[in-house]
Design goal:
By secondary structure, this protein is mainly alpha-helical. The protein contains 21 helices and 4 strands. A hairpin with a 2-residue loop joins strand 3 and strand 4. Helix 2 runs antiparallel to helix 16 and helix 6 runs parallel beside helix 19.
Length: 444
């Protein structure tokens, strides 16, 4: 539970969602997954980073948590999250009917790898701006910016040092992000960057504010901009899910693709996402930290994940725990996010390398290069639009920098994913030269 905690709470902090509700939905989602997969797969479901850019755009930080404006925005977001979970269920049925291999042909590493790289790179500029630069750049107190930058750097370096120098099978190796948060928080506390107001104004249990946190039910509506930004990203996280289950199968020396079946793991994840939407939590996904804990402890008993889920629900119910987390300065979040989102991009690069995507071949080169160019290019425009709006207090209309169809904003990541899939299907596979065939035979 502590291994996933650092990354899981970053999402609600950045997306302006409730931290206690996120912990509760992560726990409930994991319990659902545990039973749907017949208590056989040791996987913890945490907040997905793939949907973060879309959620940040939909909810925004200009709406106080629980306010009418926040509830209205959430009324559109939760419907989009619900439909995202429905995509998982549909995909689960398709996989059961046609087999996972045919699905993989539509989303091979040459498609999923660059999309994951784009995802990580899109998040970094907005995180740096929102959590480090903007706090003092907009207030004019630039002389105090050193507090933000040093806090971010100390947090970042702490995670790096703990990850690099911890013993292979130790708690430090399992939870470098959480420990980095603690070190960064301690430094921020020493230099006066921590605000304890959230603790003073906090409820003791989450039920005291359910009226505000669940007030979005009065504003439920189909926000097509939110739906178009969120739902297509499910195809990216679906491939991540298949990759994580494959990694867990390798670690546990059991083929979870067969027993209980990849269709059941997908269904479990989809039902968990739909359950999260009913409480206003973010979409969930299988966690890489989970695989790391399995490797370190060599304990593959699924019941341990079930118990961890119950602990997450317990901490979520007591709002005071979430209030303490919300006092974490934005600079600490920013410093940790640099490595978190860099690791996301690196995982996309690793996918290309491990699956031997050949950038020298025309098809791989075109798919990867155009996906990266379109995703990063449109993402840069979108970030520039947000910064211009913030600096000019929205007196300058920079919305032309975003991709819009009427009033619906299209996510750069969704566009990049669609283009990658189309190029992969349209461009024919290159014929394998005779000498290459011979070399492959020799390798075999």
């Amino acid at each position: 539970m502590f291994a996933m905690l650092g990354a899981t709470v970053v999402v609600p902090i950045l997306a302006n969602l409730s931290i206690p509700i996120t912990l509760i939905t992560a726990g409930i989602g994991t319990v659902i997954f545990y039973f749907v997969t017949k208590k056989k797969v040791p996987v913890f479901l945490g907040s997905s980073f793939a949907y973060l850019p879309a959620m940040m755009a939909i909810v925004g930080h200009d709406k106080p948590l629980g306010s009418v404006a926040w509830q209205s925005a959430m009324g559109g977001l939760v419907i989009a999250v619900l439909l995202t979970g429905l995509v998982y269920l549909i995909f689960s049925l398709i996989v059961k009917l046609i087999g996972v291999e045919k699905v993989r042909k539509i989303f091979p590493p040459r498609v999923v790898g660059p999309v994951i790289i784009v995802l990580g790179m899109l998040l970094v500029p907005s995180i740096l701006w929102n959590n480090i630069v903007a706090n003092y750049a907009l207030s004019g107190a630039s002389s105090l910016a050193w507090k933000e930058w040093t806090t971010a750097l100390i947090t970042l370096l702490s995670i790096v040092v703990i990850s690099a120098f911890s013993k292979p099978k130790s708690f430090f190796k399992a939870a470098p992000i959480l420990l980095g948060f603690l070190i960064g928080y301690g430094y921020a506390l020493a230099i006066g960057l921590v605000d304890f107001t959230p603790i003073k104004n906090s409820d003791i249990v989450v039920f005291q504010s359910l009226g505000e946190l669940l007030g979005f039910y009065k504003y439920l509506h189909f926000d097509w901009s939110a739906i178009v930004m969120m739902v297509p990203l499910a195809f990216v996280t679906l491939m991540e899910h298949i990759g994580d289950i494959s990694a867990n199968s390798t670690v546990c020396k059991k083929d979870f693709f067969v027993d209980p079946g990849i269709d059941k793991t997908l269904a479990g994840d989809g039902l968990a996402i739909m359950a999260a939407s009913t409480l206003g939590g973010p979409p969930q996904t299988t966690y890489g930290e989970n695989t790391a804990v399995l490797v370190i402890t060599e304990n593959y008993e699924p019941k341990n994940i079930f118990y961890a889920a119950l602990i997450a629900i317990f901490f979520g119910i007591f709002s005071i725990f979430g209030a303490v987390i919300s006092t974490i300065p934005s600079a600490v979040i920013g410093g940790a996010s640099i490595i978190l989102f860099g690791m996301i991009s690196a995982s996309g690069l690793r996918m290309l390398i491990e699956n031997r995507a050949d950038i020298g071949r025309t098809k791989d080169l075109i798919v990867v290069s155009i996906t990266l160019a379109v995703g990063l290019g449109l993402g840069a425009f979108s970030v520039a639009s947000d910064i211009i709006g913030a600096v000019t207090n929205y007196t300058v209309d920079a919305s032309f920098l975003k991709v819009m169809i009427g009033s619906v904003q299209i996510s750069p990541l969704a566009i990049a994913t669609l283009i990658a899939v189309i190029l992969n299907l349209v461009i024919p596979e290159p014929k394998t030269p005779v000498n290459e065939q011979n070399s492959q035979l020799e390798i075999k």
